[in-house]
Amino acid sequence: MHVARRLLSLVLTLVVASVLIFCVIEVLPGDPAAFMLGMNAQPEAVDALRAQMGLDAGLVSRYFTWAGGLLTGDFGASYTYRVPVAELIGDRVWVSLPLALYALLLSTIIAFPIGIIAAMRRGKAADYGIMGATQLGIAIPNFWFAMFLVVIFAINLRWVRAGGFPGWEDPLAAIGALTLPAIALALPQASILARIMRSALIDTLDEDYVRTARAKGLSQGGVVRGHALRNAMIPVLTIIGLQFSFLLAGAIIIENVFYLPGLGRLLFQAINQRDLIVVESTVMLLVMAVVVVTFLVDMAYAIVDPRLRR
Amino acid sequence: QNTSITLGMQLEPPNLDPTGAAAGAIDEVVYANIFEGLTRFGSDGAVLPALAREWEVSEDGLVYTFTLVEGATFHDGTAFDAQDVKFSLDRARAEDSTNAQKALFASIADVEVLSPTQVAITLSAPNGALPFNLAWGDAVIVAEESAADNATNPVGTGPFRFADWVQGDRVEMVRNDDYWGEAVALESATFKFISDPTAAFAAMMAGDLDAFPTFPAPENLIQFEADPRYNVIVGSTEGETILAMNNGLEPLNNPLVREAVSRAIDRQSIIDGAMFGYGTPIGTHFAPHNPAYVDLTELSAFDPERSRELLAEAGYPDGFTTTLKLPPPAYARRGGEIIAAQLREVGITVEIQNVEWADWLETVFRGRDYGFTIVSHTEPMDIGIYARDGYYFDYAKPEFVALIDELEATSDEGARTDLMQQAQQMIAEEHVNAYLFQLAKTGVADARLRGLWENSPTQANDLTGVSWAE
Amino acid sequence: MISRNLILGGVLSGLFAVLAVLSFVWTPFDVETLSIPDRMLRPSGTHWLGTDQLGRDIFSMLMVGARTSLAVALASVVIGMGVGVPLGLTAAARRDGLLDDVIMRGNDLIFAFPSILIAILFTALVGPSVWNAILAIGIFNIPVFARLSRGAALSLWSREYIMAARVAGKGAARISAEHILPNIANLLIVQGTIQFSVGILVEAALSYVGLGAQPPLPSWGRMLADAQTLISLAPHMALFPGLAIVLSVLGLNLMGDGLRDVFDPKLKRGRAR
Amino acid sequence: MSLLSVQNLSVQIGSVQILRDVSLEMAPGQVLGLVGESGSGKSMTALAIMRLLAEGMQASGSIVLQGEVLDTLSERQMCMRRGRNVGMVFQEPMTALNPLHTIGDQVAETVRLHTKTGRRAALVRAREVLDRVGLEHIGLNRFPHELSGGQRQRVVIACAIALAPKLLIADEPTTALDVTTQGEILELLRRLVREDGMGLILITHDLAVVAEMADEIAVMQTGRVVERGSVDDVLLRPQHDYTRALLAASVHQPVRQVRLESETVLQVRDVRRSYPGARRLIGRAPPVQAVRGISFDLKRGENLGLVGESGSGKSTLARALLGLEPVQSGEIRLGEYLMDADASRALRRRIGVVFQDPFGSFDPRWTVERLVAEPFHLLDNPPPRRAAVEEVLVSVGMKASDADRHIHAFSGGQRQRIAIARALIIRPDIILLDEAVSALDVQVRAQILDLLAELSAKYEVSYLFISHDLSVVRAITDRVMVMQLGQIVESGETEQVFTAPQADYTRQLLAATPRLPEGVAN
Ligand SMILES: Nc1ncnc2c1ncn2[C@@H]1O[C@H](COP(=O)(O)OP(=O)(O)OP(=O)(O)O)[C@@H](O)[C@H]1O
Ligand SMILES: Nc1ncnc2c1ncn2[C@@H]1O[C@H](COP(=O)(O)OP(=O)(O)OP(=O)(O)O)[C@@H](O)[C@H]1O
Ligand SMILES: [Mg+2]
Ligand SMILES: [Mg+2]
Ligand code: NI
């Protein structure tokens, strides 16, 4: 029941978002055809190209063509590249998605242990140290951090490539190429997550059922493992869900630093070239990603928390 | 022995059909490598025969007869013949053509196939520039069978055939073993697109790239120069970089004001500050390496004192305020900041607006909604734009138009030089725009690479002569 | 109790605020005057933090940049609060009603657009500018404040003192203004400082990719973008603006933490375990 | 041999002394009642015995359980004693169980911690224990939120007794429960003590509960045990002043003049109120019928009681009477006017309210002056605020100068006085008291009841007195209505209903209510 309700509101959000995106982007100044043909183009050549691109159709009919296409996976053809948008996006997703997941993985791997340590050593030196470090981690802009990573590891030490993406034919090289960007992205995420982990754990350790468990004879560590951690996952999950949007935003910028052919770079490039259909589809996809992740996180609550099942 | 090369480019071509879009990046990938025209540019800008072995001009200058090479085939195996030439040229000048340089073909009245290896082009008026026009990337010869798909799967007659395009990352091409001409040394070539200058630097430094023919960050060249692994190649381009002024807008319609602007600008500090020393100062809209060039920089020598006087004379003792719209290239963005500061010194306040190309084309170029803008005119020999009616800087003075008309109709070299110099003089004296510098071509390459173009008479990375040293 | 966090955070953020205000009347050098021969100088007695690629004094640029960063972040927090809080309060007052639903779904919708997407769309629409950055970050802040204030207000609406006010015949608007708003003010202030720091970070990111402040207005993010290609030639150009961002964000976050400790003694109360 | 012996137990946090020289003694199979007002240190004593004090609290003194000295054991050893030798049950059944684990696992956890049984065997044991506490029909794989409060409390007890510890400490195990459920839980505890020979420390603030359950009583005040002895000794022959005061307050009867006039100030006819059901994908679940057709009259100066267990709809009815929520049918008349959700201010002026939570019913940011004067919003021409507030404060036994202070500066009893002052300031005809004394200590409660009686006589206000506490209702009302599942099952003169209940439900309620033995001194 709950799932169906959330699903309905998800679909509604996406529909409204698609209208919004389409409207905003279609009123952008700049004509894709004129851009393609440049300074010396003659007006009739531009008009001919507009007709070829299907830009002379009405706004409403173009919306339905586009939105209908979204449903069937046919996003139309890129104005500039002249290839199906789905293909363009399909290629880029295989960079952006692994990058986001890699960063998410890194940040959880880092954040969970240090968050737990800080919570269990509350008020001790380790806690202060970790909290100080995470404050710093949050404050460092990831693109700045990325710049220094490139200088140190790619230019000076030459451990990894400075950027670019070799493709997944060579998985090791691909992962290598994503490592620095993922680290840059993961730093602030991990810091935030560690702080949330700590405070969520501290909160749950104050709960009555923890006291009950202690009265059963469970040790402090046993309580954390057996009771507190899983309960603390609820706020942590929320934050992971919320952070996804930041992760995407960060990825858009980081892709530029490391010239990764991901969705973010596609978006910037398409905006500059007024490849509107690519812009619309990419923005829609990113928005969809945020909405779907939020939905999945909601669903994940139900797994963690039996009160939300059914 | 290394037989492949990886080149860096800042901009990715939107598609790979040079006859359907303006982007220079298309030519940088395909020109002379995949596609060929009847004629072509050499590295020094000379017009050389290509698919046309030779040509003859009729007495009245109206009919050009081209003799084609034999044995050439397109990459898809179809043979190249005169029919393809007719098809390509007719397509480019057709009513519904989407050729970005349609004007190049404006003088053509008819294309006639005389034999499979002979084509006659009839002009509506004499035009000495026809071989030059046909050397452009927009005039390459395509096959009827494959023309429609050239955007994503270019099929030409060149020494390389297209292999793969990973959008957003690279284009790959391999040697065409059936090439009609002299075989090339390289077996394969990859063009990698790296828009971010820092990333470009890092990629070059890390050895991911063999060459970056037009390196986007001149500031980093010192470091390459200091490194024996790299060769820094500095040459010239056809790009006259100007501070364009809207001649139709108050107060820039006043020649005194325009002179004041020109004189307020210190070219050398712009070249140093924005281009880190790369670039040749110019005083008019003409490339300094052209034999017909006259050095007119003195007409607008840096003199803020005089500039202020001129402003006062023109009735603007306190200066004025206008916009400065800057397209994305570094010369514009960085140069704009410096120019804004220099203009402020004489009392002119400019409001900087960074715009994307698409926006620039629409608002500045087409809409003429601007005060100043900085742009590099990279087409070769393009002083004729000053004669265009309604062009974005809105000059087109009748005397100048007459001059250009005469130039078009003249084929005698001496007379042409004279006319071109008159034209240079006229726009420089009128201070139509503030002429800044000729854009340098600053490239970086592996020290063992041979045969890369030094100059850039057109935007191209001609790989036919490129090889690795032993 | 005033915590160490609050003092350290207050001092750091105060420092930047003072620099920003001071920059109106005095900077060591004029940031609009270029001096190409003096470009990329290392830090020295004259130029405390060196000069940039156009020979401008980096310390002066940082001072004016602080003004830009703080102004953008502040304005966007004001937008976020100004729109978000009333929305959240209204939603809470009409809890479970249609209006509540509409407001909260609207929030979800905005929330689905990462700030950078909003900024990209705005830039494409009206060109890049500080206003664009303010609006993008401001819009992004709206759902943050709307959700926060709705959540907090909802828990207050079930309090008995709200019931008492309703018995006294007061309407939802009046109760929201008299009882709810003052009681969630602490929360809003804390969140405000945090969004303030997020604003500085996002502004820097936007300016870095060219969607924020435009020249000649100095901005930390743009200084970083300019420094980028010069990072091996003149590392100080990238170092100092970055540090300015880190320290100001750190200061605000510490202040937020400190304020939370002051406002919410619950966190300090140790209970039997 | 004694089961537990606590000698000179002291606890302090920093320099604040929380427990001072607490000494307790109990034999196996005995029930020790630990009573005392809120904050007297009952819970601290229990936690100190379990060695579960929060960090930063120092305990001293000796605790001997079954001949073993507990206070020198290491934390590890102590973990092995907890749950096996001594079990503990806490007050809040709603939060004492981990919401994410099944009840089976939670009971089995105790078993698995202390014996080397596998999960299956432990679950078998858990089943047995749950059967013992009367949850035969509840599956092991249920989650706490799927159980009622009383059932949850049984699960908590099952966790504590799974290994049949020799000592069980129950800290206010029934405070959060209904009288009927409370009765069942107490009965369960009594049975376990009897069957297992287990010792039980029962902590409560309710003397009547101890009177029914305990063998011995210890009375605590400000961290000290002031009196210890057998139930009869302590209750019937109290030695210490504090014990005497406590007992007196527990059986306190306010002096009231019964003055029934014929004028009806409130007339309620067939009021129904239902809440919309939970939302579904399309439409909603069937509505929750909270109040199902209630009718009654309230006369001027009359004190009318409304009792019934939790969830029976008392507060819902109150909100409807206050015009805070619409009703689905029926009518509420104040004099000749109809009261509904958009009633005029003039109408609202006739009815005031005092809520249960003395702290939560005041905006912490306002001064008492503003708080008390808030109902002036209902008047067109309010009198000068300051003077009116001072006058009413004095009339409820506060100082005029209290008007300048904030609410956190007052004790619970004082806060409730201020709440009454707020209700009184515009002289309503009716004051609704929804659980107005439930959160107060017995002694404070006695004072407030006296105050209410006095004010009712003085200003001729009518009270609708809502409570689940029968003894309080009996003490202060003239007439009483008993509510169950949204309906009134019985109503009549208070004494008559209490002595000769007609409805089954009323009888059940009365039977479940613990009573102090006859003869507890006034
Ligand atoms: N963590 C703590 N820090 C400081 N003081 C505390 C703490 N916990 C309890 N106290 C104080 O210790 C005293 C005894 O508290 P305790 O919880 O034992 O009272 P109680 O008799 O159980 O009261 P109640 O009936 O309200 O549960 C109280 O004055 C209380 O304020
Ligand atoms: N806002 C609401 N929405 C839906 N159901 C509600 C709401 N408020 C109360 N109920 C339901 O109405 C019924 C009566 O609740 P009410 O609060 O009136 O009981 P009560 O007799 O005051 O109980 P208590 O003694 O616990 O205060 C309960 O079943 C409750 O769950
Ligand atoms: Mg207690
Ligand atoms: Mg109630
Ligand atoms: Ni559901």
UniProtKB/TrEMBL annotation, chain A:
Gene3D superfamilies membership: MetI-like (1.10.3720.10)
InterPro entries, per database record: BPD_transp_1_N, MetI-like, MetI-like_sf
Taxonomy, superkingdom: Bacteria
UniProt KW keywords: Cell membrane, Membrane, Transmembrane, Transmembrane helix, Transport
Entry GO terms, CC: plasma membrane
Primary location recorded for the protein, binned into one broad class: membrane
Membrane topology of this protein: Multi-pass membrane protein
Residue ranges of every copy of the ABC transmembrane type-1 domain listed in the record: 93-297
Membrane-spanning residues: 7-28, 99-120, 141-160, 172-194, 234-254, 283-304
Pfam families cross-referenced by the UniProt entry: BPD_transp_1, BPD_transp_1_N
Entry's family note: Belongs to the binding-protein-dependent transport system permease family.
Name by which UniProt lists this protein: Peptide/nickel transport system permease protein
Automatic annotation (TrEMBL), chain C:
GO biological process, one term: transmembrane transport
Gene Ontology terms: cellular component: plasma membrane
Top-rank taxon: Bacteria
InterPro entries given in the database record: BP-dependent_transpt_permease, MetI-like, MetI-like_sf
Subcellular compartments: Cell membrane
Coiled-coil parts of chain: none
TM stretches of this protein: 7-29, 70-89, 109-127, 133-157, 184-209, 229-250
Protein name: Peptide/nickel transport system permease protein
Organism: Pontivivens marinum
TrEMBL record, chain D:
Single Gene Ontology BP annotation: peptide transport
PROSITE patterns, alphabetized: ABC_TRANSPORTER_1, ABC_TRANSPORTER_2
Subcellular location: Cell inner membrane
Membrane topology: Peripheral membrane protein
GO molecular function: ATP binding; ATP hydrolysis activity
Major localization listed first in the record, in broad terms: membrane
Superkingdom of the organism of origin: Bacteria
InterPro entries: AAA+_ATPase, ABC_transp_ATP-bind, ABC_transporter-like_ATP-bd, ABC_transporter-like_CS, Oligopep_ABC_C, P-loop_NTPase
Bilayer-spanning residue ranges: none
Pfam families assigned to the protein according to its UniProt record, in alphabetical order: ABC_tran, oligo_HPY
Domain named ABC transporter: residues: 4-247, 266-510
CDD domains the record matches: ABC_NikE_OppD_transporters
Keyword ATP-binding belongs to the record: yes
GO cellular component, one term: plasma membrane
Keywords, alphabetical: ATP-binding, Nucleotide-binding, Transport
NCBIfam families recorded: PRK10419.1, PRK11308.1
Family classification: Belongs to the ABC transporter superfamily.
Protein name, as recorded: Peptide/nickel transport system ATP-binding protein
Organism of this sequence: Pontivivens marinum
